[in-house]
Amino acid sequence: MTYPRTFSHIGISVTNLEQAVDFYTSVLGWYVIMPPTEIVADDSAIGVMCNDVFGEGWGSFRIAHLSTGDKIGVEIFEFRNAEQRKNNFEYWKTGVFHFCVQDPDVEGLAAKIVENGGKQRMPVREYYPGEKPYRMVYCEDPFGNLIEIYSHSYELTYSAGAYQE
Questions:
Q1: Residues 74 and 12 grouped into a single domain
Q2: Rounded to an integer, what distance in angstroms lies between the CA atom of residue 91 and that of residue 22?
Q3: What is the pTM of this model?
Q4: What is the C-alpha separation between 97 and 140, in angstroms, rounded?
Q5: Is residue 103 situated within a structural domain?
Q6: Engineered SS bond to 66: which of 6, 30, 116, 131, CB 3.0-4.6 Å?
Q7: Which range marks the domain in which residue 11 is found?
Q8: What DSSP state is assigned to residue 87?
Q9: Ramachandran sector of residue 39 (left: φ over 0; alpha: ψ -120 to 50; beta: rest)
Q10: Do the domain assignments include residue 104?
Q11: CA gyration radius, the chain
Q12: pLDDT at position 129, please?
């Protein structure tokens, strides 16, 4: 039977796990569920699962688990030899290219992201200029991962057809 599944978590790769945990807890207010922990290739249940996912030879990585205000999990990974891409915004290629958070103070959160080593990619825009107060902006965390900010819920933003003239 098909029914709408709930969202459990997302995994984000970074080059500095402690810096990322600090950024996401102090800027977005997310909770630490499991502090930075090293996972190694071995015969443990997690070691075997990681072999299934990454293949043989991954060696080790570090991970922390956080949770958003609405209980969505965020796994933050720091892999050995982690590299920050020069262009993390190849939107024309398949895969997740951003995640979105909601805050009524879009401008304030964007400024806080910039103050803490991130980047604001565009000016704050309105979906229904002069009609409804729905705003959005794209930013980046200090590692180039894209964060979109909405002022209102996804349902409210799109229920009336945000792109209609």
A1: yes
A2: 27
A3: 0.91
A4: 11
A5: yes
A6: 30
A7: 6-81
A8: -
A9: beta
A10: yes
A11: 18
A12: 87
